[in-house]
Amino acid sequence: MHSFENELKYPSALKSFHHIITRAHKKKIVIFLDYDGTLSPIVDDPERAFMSIDMHSAVKDVAKYFPTAIISGRSRDKVFELVGLTELFYAGSHGMDIIFPAKDTISVNRLNYIRSTDKQGKEVNLFQPAREFIPMINEVFRTLVEVTKDIPGAFVENHKFCTSVHYRNVDEKSWRMIAQRVHDVLKDYPRLTLTHGRKVLEVRPLIDWDKGKAVEFLLESLGLSNANDVLPIYIGDDRTDEDAFKVLREGNRGYGILVSSVPKESKAFLSLRDTSEVKEFLKSLVRWKEQMSNVDG
């Protein structure tokens, strides 16, 4: 009943695949992927949220044919560590820390846009609209670790441009206490804001930037912001992905695909039930592209 209800409102992206590729005719597909709950299952320990070998190869194959970006709430370094594919674009901290190879054409007239080198010594482009907030986030991170250390199961993570307090493993009776302590800490930081994810409280800079803005920035940087030539597809499962779904819904620019096995209100157009359906969808895109290449060849 539940998933049927979801499918009525947000039809299955697998069942609508033909419709998607028909619309993609003579357009460039660009893929945006959330990480947790989309490419890897949600797990109790965020440090152990690994992709399956199959999913890893599906993402690698998709990136061969389409510009592919991972947009996550995690720090950019952490997402890269978990994914490990150099051919992707990475946007960590909800899009506040974006990296891509320097060879890609980009619009350089952006605030806080810097050219740098990565760990392998390759030249890369970084875009960090919240750079000035790093010391403040570090300070808040240390304070939050201190005020939650007596709560069993609480786990505080520093994502460089934002910090998150996980309470998935905390006794439900203590949830209110955790929320109260985080709120109390933030009273001293008017330039930071609190948002809620899945069993997580996230502290972020109060700037006009989110996953939707990151999608627009990446499309523009790649010279792909002309809606007539491009079909962006964004796959995600969390509340923070709604900003990206909204951007693609406005002007019917592309497809937001919600990953959920239960009905939810969403700005997405389509849905997939779980990570295995995400993998199947990505593989379908690769198979279609390969068939098209053979026909054209």
Any chance you could write out the topology, listing elements then pairs?
Elements: H1 2-9, H2 17-23, E1 28-33, H3 53-65, E2 68-71, H4 76-83, E3 89-92, E4 97-101, E5 113-117, E6 123-127, H5 134-148, E7 155-158, E8 163-166, H6 175-186, E9 192-197, E10 200-205, H7 211-221, E11 230-236, H8 242-249, E12 255-259, E13 270-272, H9 275-296
Parallel strand pairs: 1-2, 1-11, 2-3, 11-12, 12-13
Antiparallel strand pairs: 3-4, 4-6, 5-6, 7-8, 8-10, 9-10
Helix pairs in contact: 3-9, 5-6, 7-8
Summarize the structure in words.
With 297 residues, this protein is of the alpha/beta class. Helix content is 35%, strand content 22%. The strands form two sheets. Strands 5-6-4-3-2-1-11-12-13 form a nine-stranded mixed beta sheet, sandwiched between helices. It has a four-stranded antiparallel beta sheet with strand order 7-8-10-9, with helices on one face. The longest helix has 22 residues, at 275-296. It starts with a helix and ends with a helix. Residues 104-112 have low confidence and may be disordered.
